[in-house]
Design brief:
The protein is of the alpha+beta class and 139 residues long. The protein has one domain: Yope Regulator, Chain: A, CATH 3.30.1460.10. The chain has three helices and six strands. Strands 1-2-3-4-6-5 form a six-stranded antiparallel sheet. 35% of the residues lie in helices and 24% in strands. It holds the Pfam family YbjN. InterPro entries: Put_sensory_transdc_reg_YbjN.
Length: 139
């Protein structure tokens, strides 16, 4: 029986995550501004680690909003997408809509779980973005 190395709050690092994603043939890009790392696919998926306790990995996608949409229509679309896709959260933040998901690492997760979670988030966030595009709230 083979032993599986677990990712947990004691050994997790940004470098470790980059290596795991690259080993899974994902395109990992360091921000030119030096403030983060993302996976480059249809929508860039940022990933970061809880700075204080290192208890979770946060995946997020940031999308530009259509500035001509009124606040009521924006809120209605955001609320509807949150009802349809409960596993992730969408919210307005200044001139953007952000979609995120938290993967808790307490007790440990394996590399396969990390990759599957990213892939699932990628599918869900793409569907959420497509729904919001259909509501004309994204630019």
């Amino acid at each position: 029986m083979s032993s599986v190395e677990l990712i947990n709050q004691h050994n997790i690092s940004q470098e470790m995550l980059c290596e795991i994603f690259e080993d899974a043939y994902l395109s990992v890009v360091k921000s030119e501004k030096g403030n983060g790392v993302y996976i480059s696919e249809r929508y860039n998926t940022w990933f970061d680690i809880d700075d204080k306790k290192k208890e979770y990995i946060r995946f997020s996608v940031v999308l530009k909003i259509n500035l001509s949409v009124n606040e009521q229509d924006m809120n209605r679309a955001i609320n509807e997408v949150n009802k349809k896709y409960m596993m992730s959260r969408a919210f307005c933040n200044a001139n953007t809509v952000e979609i995120d998901y938290y993967l808790w690492v307490n007790g440990g997760i394996d590399k396969k779980n990390l990759i599957f979670t990213y892939k699932f988030f990628s599918i869900a966030s793409t569907s959420m973005a497509q729904y919001l595009l259909g509501c004309n709230v994204l630019s």
